[in-house]
Amino acid sequence: MGTDMAAPGQPGCTSYDAIVIGAGIQGSFAAYHLAQRRRDTLLLEQFFLPHSRGSSHGQSRITRSAYPEEHYAHMMPHSFRLWQQLEDEAGILLYSLGPDAVLDAVTLAQRFPGLRPCPGEVALWDSSGGVLLADRALRAVQDAFRRRGGTVRDGEKVLRIDPGAVITVTTAAGLYRAPRLIIAAGAWTNAVVAPLGLRLPLQPLRIDVCYWREKEPGSGGAVTPCFMAMGLPYAPHGIYGLPALEYPGLVKVCYHHGSPTDPEERDRTPPGSPHPHIALLSNFISSYLPGLEPQPAVLESCLYTNTPDGDFILDQHPKYSNIIIGAGFSGHGFKLAPVVGQLLCQLSLGEEPSHCMAPFAISRFPGVLRAAL
């Protein structure tokens, strides 16, 4: 859709009601919510879809209601409702959930024989916890966006953004204009916003995504719940795991942290120890999941984009109020993407946000506004 505003002899420039940069799960949901509100929306992606270069690929993510931060705990019921709406619209299963209870070590081991907790340890069983089928969910929201008239253009890297009452976005393939812009570019966010005079405290991290094989095929070692192990002295950022989905018989167990990286060079082998957290995970596997081999069978990569406090950035550009930024999802944003997309949409339309936005303000970080390049 869109309206061609080119004058004769000039490069084509198509106009929209809104442009979203970044077709990961956050940007895709923002575009979907704009299209729901009948805004003619363009969703731009620098890589050809589908791709595994960012933070939204893979088959599985953990979802849960249990959060130590009150603002996320309040957002999760809303997010579940929006996931259900998308699932109903798409007509396919997008997530599966497990019942709430506190389980001591003995009860936990009886219920899940593959887990061997230490005496005295307890687990909170979150009945809303489970698995989001990530690849399927991303395709579903993008398909729903297209059905509502939205336009997706992939393989178009943004080269320039000219702010104003009407914003012009120049890509490798064209020029686009809109009165509102949402930037949800993941690990590439600072590269996109730096020419707009903004430097956000975002740290891209390369995450080792590890899959561990059963010692005895069919022994049940791969039948584990989603879990998050917190408070381990050798793993201060926590360890999480999901049952076998991507690869039959291989359980996904990862450290919730990684190594600083340039997103353009994520897959280049770094000097020194290329996978510094494998030994940490092997120690955990040997202690808590003894039915699994203590060395990973498959090793893949993903990107986190972390803020210093682990909270998202969902806010207007400090100088250009019609440019909205969603960034810094810090490895826990996928489950909240439906409500994050709605909040970004509401900010771009000048609507009252559905949730308190104070935890996500850019102003909590001093010195981010600089002279435009």
Written overview of the protein:
With 373 residues, this protein is of the alpha+beta class. It folds into 2 domains: 181 residues, FAD/NAD(P)-binding domain (3-Layer(bba) Sandwich); 135 residues, 2-Layer Sandwich (D-Amino Acid Oxidase, Chain A, domain 2). It has 7 helices and 22 strands. The strands form 5 sheets. A 6-stranded mixed sheet has the order 10-4-3-14-22-21. Strands 15, 16, 17, 18, 19 and 20 form a 6-stranded antiparallel sheet that branches. Helix 1 links the parallel strand 3 and strand 4. Helix 1 runs parallel beside helix 4. The longest helix has 21 residues. It is globular, with a radius of gyration of 21 Å. It starts with a strand and ends in a 24-residue tail after the last helix. About 1% of the residues have low confidence.
List the helices and strands and how they pair.
Blueprint: E1 3-4, E2 13-15, E3 18-21, H1 25-36, E4 41-44, E5 60-63, H2 70-90, E6 95-97, E7 101-104, H3 105-111, E8 122-125, E9 130-133, H4 134-147, E10 151-153, E11 158-162, E12 167-171, E13 175-178, E14 181-183, H5 189-193, E15 203-213, E16 227-229, E17 239-242, E18 250-255, E19 259-260, H6 278-288, E20 298-306, E21 313-316, E22 323-327, H7 337-349
Parallel strand pairs: 2-13, 3-4, 3-14, 4-10, 14-22
Antiparallel strand pairs: 1-2, 5-9, 6-9, 7-8, 11-12, 12-13, 15-18, 15-19, 15-20, 16-17, 17-18, 21-22
Helix pairs in contact: 1-4, 1-7, 2-4, 2-7
